[in-house]
Design a protein that fits this description.
The protein has 464 residues and is α+β, with helices and mostly antiparallel strands. The chain is 60% helix and 15% strand.
C-alpha cells in the first residue's frame, strides 16, 4: 500500500465514521419514536428494552451505511481539493481517476459486507423484532398503581375486575395506605372495601397477585334483594387476583417468515415452491378444461344430464363447477404470481442496496473535487438530493413491482443504473477538469446539475 493510498483511506475514515454515527443516530431515534407506543405502559425490564433497541438497529444501518459513503466522499474530496492536495498529486503525475481507486476498492469491500449484512443479519433481526413486538403487544400492562387515582385492575381472563385507589403507595415495599376497592366482578352485587393499609405480593411465577388488606370493612349491596345491605369488618383480608401477569411471556420464533425476514436462499426456495404450485394448478385446470370440453362436445344422449323440475335436461353440475373452478384457479395463480414478484423484489433489493456503495463512490468523489468551496452546505445539498431521488426510486419501484406493473429487476436496479451512468460521466470527466480551489461554490452546484441533466436528456433524444 502506497503512501498516497494510506493517506486517502485515513482522510476518509474520520468523515465516514462521523457521517455513519450521525445518520444512524438520527434515523434510529426516528424509528424508536414511531415504535415508542409499543413500549409505553408495559413495565418492561431494561433487558427487554435493550433487546428491542438492538434489534431495531440493523434496519437503520442498512439505510445509513451507503449514505455515509456518499457523505464521506463528498466532504473528503472537497477538503482535499480546497487544500490543493489533489492539485499537488496531479502535478506529480497522478491522474485524478487513480485518486479514486482506493475509495472505489473500499466501496467494493463495503458492498460485499453490505450484501452479507442484508442477506444474513438483517432478515434474522427483522424476524426476532417482529416476534418481540408481538409478545410485547400481547403482554398485559404491568401492575403499576398510581397514588390518589382510581386504577383499573383485571385478570387476563377478565373474570374479575376491580378498581383500586390508595392515598399513598410505597414502591420499594409494595405497601399501600388508605385503600379503597370497588369490586365489579359480579354485576348483580356492588361490593366496596375500605382498609387502612394494604400489601401487594406476587407469586413465584409473577402471574398471580395477592393483595393483603388490614383493618378495614366491606360494604355490600345485592341488587337481587332490594333493601338488603351488608357490612362486615376485618383485621386482615387476602384478596387473590389470578392472572395479573408481571412478566413478558416469550412465545419463541414460530411465526411465519415474511419476505423481509428471509435470506436470499430462502427467498429462492420460496419462489421455486410457488412456481411449482402455479404449475400444478395450471395442469389441474387444463385437465378439468379438457373434461368440460369433452362433455360439451358429446352427443346429447351421451352427455351426463339432469332433468329439472320443468322437464328440461341440463348438463351435470360437475361440468358447471369446473367452469367456476377455472376462475378460482386464475385468482390463485394471480396471488401466487404476486407473491413471487414480492420475493423477487426482495432478492434484487438486497443486491441493489449493496451495489449502491459502489455507485455513491463514483458520484461523491467527482462532485467533491468539482466543488471544493461548497463546504458543509454542498455536502448536505448533494446528499439530500441524491438520497431523495435514490430512495424514492427504490421505494416507488418496489411498490410498482409488488403490484406487477414492472419487472422486479428493473424496479430495483433502475436507480442504480441512472446514478451509475451519472457517476461514470463525472468520473471520466475528471481527466478534463482543472483541479483548483477557485470556484466550486453552491451557485455552481445548481449550474453543474442542470448541465448534467440537459446532457442526459440530449443523449436520450439522440438515442431515440
Amino acid at each position: 500500500m502506497t503512501i498516497i493510498t494510506r493517506h486517502l483511506i485515513k482522510a476518509h475514515l474520520g468523515p465516514f465514521l462521523f457521517a455513519f454515527s450521525a445518520l444512524t443516530g438520527l434515523l434510529f431515534l426516528n424509528a424508536i419514536a414511531q415504535r415508542i407506543e409499543d413500549l409505553v405502559g408495559k413495565g418492561l425490564p431494561w433487558s427487554i428494552i435493550g433487546e428491542f433497541l438492538i434489534l431495531s438497529l440493523p434496519h437503520t444501518i442498512a439505510l445509513t451505511l451507503p449514505m455515509s459513503i456518499l457523505v464521506a466522499l463528498l466532504y473528503t474530496f472537497s477538503e482535499l481539493t480546497a487544500a490543493n492536495e489533489l492539485t499537488a498529486m496531479s502535478a506529480g503525475g497522478i491522474r485524478p481517476i487513480r485518486i479514486l481507486t482506493p475509495p472505489l476498492l473500499l466501496g467494493i469491500g463495503m458492498a460485499v459486507v453490505m450484501l452479507f449484512f442484508n442477506d444474513q443479519i438483517l432478515p434474522s433481526a427483522n424476524h426476532q423484532l417482529k416476534d418481540l413486538v408481538v409478545d410485547i403487544s400481547e403482554k398485559s400492562p404491568t401492575f403499576v398503581l398510581q397514588e390518589r387515582v382510581i386504577n383499573r385492575v383485571e385478570t387476563q381472563d377478565q373474570s374479575r375486575i376491580i378498581y383500586l385507589q390508595a392515598s399513598t403507595i410505597d414502591r420499594n415495599t409494595d405497601t399501600l395506605e388508605d385503600v379503597v376497592i370497588y369490586d365489579l366482578s359480579d354485576p348483580g352485587i356492588h361490593r366496596t372495601t375500605y382498609a387502612s393499609q394494604g400489601e401487594m405480593i406476587f407469586d413465584e411465577e409473577q402471574s398471580d397477585l395477592y393483595l393483603t388488606l388490614y383493618s378495614g370493612e366491606v360494604l355490600q349491596v345485592d341488587l337481587g334483594r332490594p333493601g338488603e345491605f351488608n357490612r362486615s369488618e376485618f383485621e386482615k383480608q387476602i384478596l387473590p387476583l389470578k392472572g395479573i401477569t408481571n412478566e413478558l411471556q416469550r412465545q419463541g420464533s414460530g411465526s411465519t417468515l415474511s419476505d423481509r425476514e428471509m435470506s436470499i436462499s430462502m427467498l429462492r426456495e420460496a419462489i421455486t415452491e410457488k412456481s411449482k404450485e402455479i404449475a400444478t394448478i395450471r395442469n389441474e385446470a387444463l385437465e378439468r378444461a379438457k373434461f368440460s370440453v369433452s362433455e360439451m362436445t358429446k352427443d346429447l344422449s351421451e352427455t351426463t344430464t339432469t332433468a329439472g323440475p320443468d322437464g328440461v335436461l341440463r348438463i351435470s353440475q360437475s361440468v358447471s363447477m369446473d367452469a367456476l373452478n377455472t376462475h378460482q384457479n386464475q385468482l390463485q395463480i394471480a396471488a401466487l404470481a404476486s407473491t413471487i414478484d414480492r420475493y423477487s423484489v426482495e432478492i434484487h433489493k438486497k443486491y441493489a442496496i449493496a451495489f449502491a456503495c459502489i455507485v455513491f463512490v463514483l458520484i461523491g468523489g467527482p462532485l467533491g473535487i468539482r466543488f471544493p468551496r461548497g463546504g458543509i452546505g454542498m455536502v448536505i445539498l448533494v446528499s439530500v438530493f441524491v438520497f431523495g431521488i435514490y430512495w424514492t426510486g427504490l421505494i416507488g419501484g418496489e411498490n410498482l413491482a409488488d403490484r406487477g406493473i414492472i419487472a422486479p429487476v428493473w424496479a430495483m436496479w433502475t436507480p442504480n443504473i441512472v446514478f451509475l451512468c451519472l457517476g461514470l460521466l463525472l468520473t471520466f470527466g475528471l481527466g478534463r477538469m482543472e483541479n483548483s480551489n477557485r470556484g466550486g461554490g453552491l451557485d455552481e452546484t445548481f449550474s453543474v446539475f442542470g448541465d448534467l441533466i440537459n446532457k442526459c436528456l440530449r443523449h436520450l433524444r439522440a438515442a431515440e
